[in-house]
Amino acid sequence: MRLLYGDDRAVIEFVSMMLPNDRTAFANARGIGVLDDDGRLVAGVLYHGWEPEAGVIEMSSASLSRRWLTRPVLDAIFRYPFEGIGCQLVALRVSERNTHLHRILRAFGFAEFFIPRLRGRDEGEIIFTLTDDAWRSGRFQKGATHGQEGRERSAGA
What we know:
By secondary structure, the chain is an alpha+beta fold. Helices cover 32% and strands 30% of the residues.
């Protein structure tokens, strides 16, 4: 798997075709795509709804395969909001039926908030949130410094 940066339009189109969201929600989104060994786009993550004053951004993703969520891909996906643009919290909206993704997000340290009927009369949604502190201290990040060493040296200089 390889990451695709800089082609936001392709990632927006890919994710929009697979998610029931209003396409206008992704109009100004930034995206990271995931390419398979043949160079085919098989997954995409969109960052949208950026609130710089609050340091909050929403993420939406879609994929053709479950194989795309490797540790290096997860690291890149979260490195962008937390280190690239300085978010203090990311949020994801997930169907109550997507139990596979629920397990992954819980293992990654996300907090969750269930809202009945948010996707219609017969389907609720879970809002998953992850803070920068939880990301840096999470089990997937053990041993990673995420630029902290450089910041500490700079602060002491």
